[in-house]
Design brief:
The complex is a heterodimer of chains A (about 425) and B (about 550). Helices cover about 35% and strands about 20% of the residues of chain A. By secondary structure, chain A is of the alpha/beta class. The relative contact order of chain A is 0.09. With about 550 residues, chain B is of the alpha/beta class. Among the domains of chain B are: about 230 residues, TIM Barrel (Alpha-Beta Barrel); about 70 residues, Alpha Horseshoe (Serine Threonine Protein Phosphatase 5, Tetratricopeptide repeat), CATH 1.25.40; about 80 residues, Alpha Horseshoe (Serine Threonine Protein Phosphatase 5, Tetratricopeptide repeat), CATH 1.25.40.10. Classes of the chains: A alpha/beta (about 425), B alpha/beta (about 550).
């Protein structure tokens, strides 16, 4: 069955669609011709061109990665797909879909299937159900539109502990590194921490499942064989296991793989030994999750990091010749304007340039985060009462400690301090 | 990856001389083939007319599309505000929906104000009012604003468009801005700066052009009445010239927008790319632009150096020398300047002066080249001056053995009568895997050594190899002919000298050599003719005179 998977980035350059490529790898292994389409401001498409492509390909299923920021475009392309390819079904997955409230489904008339579970498992079952014209039976991990306004929700499937059970989009040539400025690898899923602003534990679980070191090295080799050789790891918690990180870095050097890597790591891991290994393996930048430099604010988020330890790690890494990025955000529960500005001052005091991912962003309220389950309890007030049910407040909220104007003030301070105008790379 | 279609057009530039109604019909056909996030730049139409309706209809039909309308408003801000208000009212339905969906505006109004009747301060004031009430405009000016006014505009985030030296209408100014913006984007993204712009079409006087450059050259794709979808097919051979001209004309715009630094970087980067592509003339012009946009003497010095290098490549040696001297006066590294000036002297074939400059660079220090390379350059100047001992002195300081060092040591030895030592150096040069372009010369000089050592058999092998690599070198044929003569292989020698005189019919010695060999082959009549030809060119060739006397009784 012909499948098309569409990645839309309306306000940025194209990004390697690693999650969709994972699904494509599964489907192609099962014999379903599957194509990927990337639309972005840097890789534009015309409405006529899209219609022509959809009509020529005639997919029976079109799947999308849905984010808060692209849902409008997803809906428009889903409508096009239905018109251009009669009988075509549409599916959304990704962050916006996983925790989409049921009441939102009635408004998303152009979407047939909403994926809540692990994409590789859901898409396989969804394709089977469409192939067998059996959308009236529950699809594990998905909600399916039924005749009228009815919806059918399938129980979540159990994902495999060993991610090597899934094929690799790099090794199966679903993705060609030469097509991308930077390649992305997703080597593990899940996070054991419970940061209140983050949806990862709820989406992927609190135990970490990972690809084997050998599989990761095979993927990195494939990425290094063509294209720019630049890559980064999109894992929510790449450095959960120091031994595994060391084994991957050692393997890169041992195999003689030439890559340039951006790598997120933990402050306590940045020992002189690891710094040497990072250098040897081709890492140019390490990123550390700071969020806030104020311990009381951090404590409220449930993130157990010590800002001073992060500062020390950042300075050590800079002294070792690596570039350093510090992720931070403002508008956190309990955070005042002074606290937010203290974070900016802290980042600068570490010698970290305010650019790229070191540009702070306002905390986002997304479906699935513990903050959004009960915002009032965290001192958060969403601003818009007219949001459609399929959209979360995002950055449109105030807190008991910062009003809208305060948020703007902090944003302006970060922008003024930024050397690249505030362009963040990793969302 | 599936490609939805060829790169769709992202920008449409529409003039005010095409009939609005038929232009609207054309636009209705073209918009669905444009990128989902597209820009329509309209120079001079009433926004209440058909074009706006067409764009709004397109947005209603296509929920995916975001259209940016850059409309030039010609007149006072009040009328512009009223027009804009009408525009936004017409679009309010889907704009409201877009707001609810959090996908931003779907019709983004980006007015361009042009009020030649107002002074610049008043225009800025009008723009401020408009920005507060409706949408942030740009300003299209004919003259550069005073610095204080430019600062006010920058503080408000207003973009100022200014006509370059040759721009005669609004559309030219706006398309030049597009070329500059696209080039800055490519530079920021690390792509080649001389590539094509973001895909665009220009409609002017009823004709559709594939890009701004083709419009300027009068090359059109079709009339606006053609209904077939138009794909963007730029002629990328035109891009270099287009970008060079746009950057050359951007000085006032960059300065007015307080982007002198960006403009300078752009001029230097585009200039460097042009120079690398061999277009050193336009590159020199851009170096001047970079100098104009520089904010410090050191920046100006850098621009002067780039200009000097371009002039040097162009063979404009006096201009190159002036640029380098200018750079020195602005604080450029004296050692660097001395090195560049030495290169000018070399091009002038003044090796004595070049040696002084090289010595200066050596003494002052330069990061452009290693000291060892400077010694090699100095050695080459001495070789050209036939100062073999001095050349050898510098060659000994020129670092690790290389083809160039070994070769020139060989040349020195050979010229000082040490053929055995020279032979050893030429063998050394050959052992260092010389580049193919040097191989012919090395073989020739090796052959020369062997000839000096009277090892003619071996010399012939080297010289034949040299000729295979450099078939048109007169000296190779001459020397091979000589060695073959010495070996008594007169027929082959005659062939060599025949080839030599074909290459240079004024070479008296080769006519004479041909005569000698023909005489030895018994071809007396032709030999006599060759001697006479030689003597007609040079009456002093004794062996030709003797030969002619020798065979005169026979002929």
């Amino acid at each position: 069955m012909q499948v098309l998977l569409v990645d839309i980035h309306p306000h940025s350059d194209p990004v390697t669609p690693i999650s969709l490529a994972n699904l494509a790898a599964v489907l192609r292994r099962e014999g379903h011709p599957t194509e990927l389409l990337s639309i972005s401001s840097g890789r534009p498409a015309s409405p006529a061109g899209l219609r022509r492509a959809l009509s020529e390909l005639a997919p029976k299923l079109v799947g999308f990665t849905a984010y808060q920021r692209n849902l409008s475009q997803v809906r428009a392309v889903a409508r096009m797909a239905r018109q251009a390819s009669p009988g075509c079904r549409t599916l959304i997955g990704g962050p916006q879909a996983v925790f989409l409230p049921d009441r939102a489904l009635a408004e998303l008339q152009e979407i047939d299937i909403v994926c809540h579970g692990e994409g590789e498992l859901v898409i396989r079952e969804a394709v089977r159900a469409i192939d067998e014209d059996a959308l009236d039976r529950p699809i594990p991990g998905a909600t399916t539109r039924q005749d009228g306004d009815g919806w059918l929700r399938g129980a979540a499937p159990s994902p495999p502990e060993d991610l090597d059970a899934y094929p690799s989009p790099w090794l199966d040539s679903i993705l060609d590194p030469a097509d991308w400025e930077e390649s992305i690898l997703l080597t593990s899923r899940g996070c054991p921490h419970h940061c209140s602003f983050c949806v990862t534990p709820a989406a992927f679980g609190t135990s970490i499942r990972a690809h084997s070191v050998e599989r990761v090295l095979d993927d990195i080799s494939a990425v290094a064989s063509r294209g720019s050789g630049r890559l980064w790891f999109a894992d929510p918690n790449f450095s959960y296991d120091a031994d595994r990180v060391a084994a991957i870095l050692d393997g890169i050097a041992r195999r003689g793989i030439k890559v340039e890597m951006w790598i997120e790591t933990r402050a306590d891991m940045l020992t002189p030994d690891l710094l040497r290994m990072l250098h040897r393996a081709g890492a140019h930048t390490v990123a550390l999750g700071l969020e806030s430099a104020v311990p009381a604010v951090l404590a409220r988020t449930g993130k157990a990091v010590d800002p001073e330890a992060i500062g020390t790690a950042a300075r050590t890494a800079l002294a070792a010749g690596l570039d350093v990025e510090l992720f931070s955000q403002y508008g956190l529960p309990g955070e005042t304007v002074d606290d937010a500005l203290a974070t900016l001052a802290f980042v600068r005091s570490c010698g970290v340039a305010v650019r790229g991912n070191s540009n702070a962003q306002q905390m986002q309220l997304y479906f699935g985060s513990s903050l959004l389950r009960n915002p009032e309890a965290h001192g958060i007030r969403p601003l818009r009462g007219d949001l459609p049910p399929y959209l979360a407040p995002g950055d449109e909220f105030e807190t008991d400690w910062m009003c809208r104007a305060d948020m703007d003030r902090v944003r302006a301070a970060w922008t003024a301090a930024s050397v690249d105008g505030g362009k963040r790379i990793v969302s | 990856m599936t490609q939805a279609a060829p790169a769709p057009v992202e920008w449409l530039f529409l003039d005010h001389e095409t009939p609005p109604e038929s232009l609207a019909a054309w636009l209705a056909d073209v918009l669905p083939h444009c990128a989902w996030s597209c820009h329509v730049v309209v120079a001079g139409h009433d926004p209440g007319a058909g074009l706006l309706r067409t764009i709004i209809d397109h947005l209603r039909r296509e929920p995916l599309v975001v259209a940016h309308l850059h409309q030039v408003f010609d007149g006072a801000w009040l009328e512009s505000a009223e027009s804009l208000d009408r525009m936004m009212t017409a679009a309010s339905g889907f704009q409201g929906h877009a707001y609810r969906e959090r996908c931003g505006s779907r019709l983004v109004a980006l007015p361009i104000l042009k009020a030649p009747g107002l002074d610049v301060e008043r225009q800025i004031e009008s723009a401020r009012d408009l920005a507060e009430h409706l949408a942030k405009p740009s300003l299209l000016l004919r003259e550069p604003p005073p610095e204080t006014v430019a600062a006010d505009a920058a503080a408000l985030g207003l973009r100022l468009y200014l006509g370059g030296p040759g721009a005669v209408n609004d559309l030219e100014i706006l398309t030049a801005g597009h070329v500059i913006d696209s080039t800055i984007d490519r530079m920021a993204e690390g792509r080649p700066v001389l590539g094509p712009c973001r895909p665009h079409l220009v409609v002017a006087r009823g004709r559709v052009h594939a890009c701004a450059r083709q419009w300027a050259l009068g090359v059109s794709l079709a009339t606006h009445e053609a209904r077939a979808p138009i794909e963007w097919t730029p002629d990328i051979r035109l891009c270099s010239g287009c970008v060079a001209d746009a950057v050359a004309g951007s000085t006032a715009t960059m300065a007015a927008n307080l982007r002198r630094g960006d403009g300078r970087t752009l001029a230097l980067r585009v200039g460097a790319a042009l120079a690398e592509a061999g277009d050193t003339g336009p590159a020199a012009v851009l170096a001047k632009v970079a100098a104009e946009l520089s904010d410090s003497n050191l920046q100006r010095a850098e621009a002067h150096i780039q200009e000097g290098l371009c002039r040097l490549a162009e063979g404009q040696l006096a201009a190159a020398e002036a640029a380098f001297i200018g750079a020195a006066g602005l604080g450029a590294e004296p050692g660097d300047v001395a090195y560049h000036r030495a290169k000018v002297q070399v091009a002038w074939r003044d090796d004595i002066e070049a040696l002084d400059r090289y010595a200066e660079a050596l003494e002052l220090g330069t990061e452009l080249v290693a000291d060892t390379d400077l010694h090699l350059e100095m050695a080459l100047s001495h070789v050209r001056l036939e100062e073999w001992a001095e050349a050898r002195e510098h060659l000994c300081l020129a670092g690790d053995p290389s083809t160039a060092i070994e070769f020139n040591l060989g040349v020195c030895d050979l010229n000082e009568g040490r053929a055995m030592e020279a032979l050893s150096h030429f063998d050394g040069a050959l052992s260092l895997s010389p580049p193919l372009e040097d191989l012919g010369r090395i073989r020739f000089f090796r052959g020369y050594c062997l000839k000096e050592l009277a090892r003619f058999d071996e010399a012939v092998i080297d010289l034949e190899r040299a000729i295979r690599l450099e078939t048109a070198e007169l000296a190779h044929h001459n020397l091979l002919g000589f060695c073959l003569f010495k070996l008594g292989r007169h027929a082959e020698a005659a062939t060599c000298f025949t080839r030599a005189v074909e290459l240079d019919p004024s070479s008296a010695i080769d006519w004479a050599n041909l005569g000698v060999n023909l005489e030895r082959l018994g071809n007396i009549d032709r030999a006599a003719a060759m001697y006479r030809r030689a003597l007609s060119l040079d009456q002093g060739i004794e062996f030709a005179i003797a030969g002619l006397e020798r065979i005169a009784p026979i002929t």
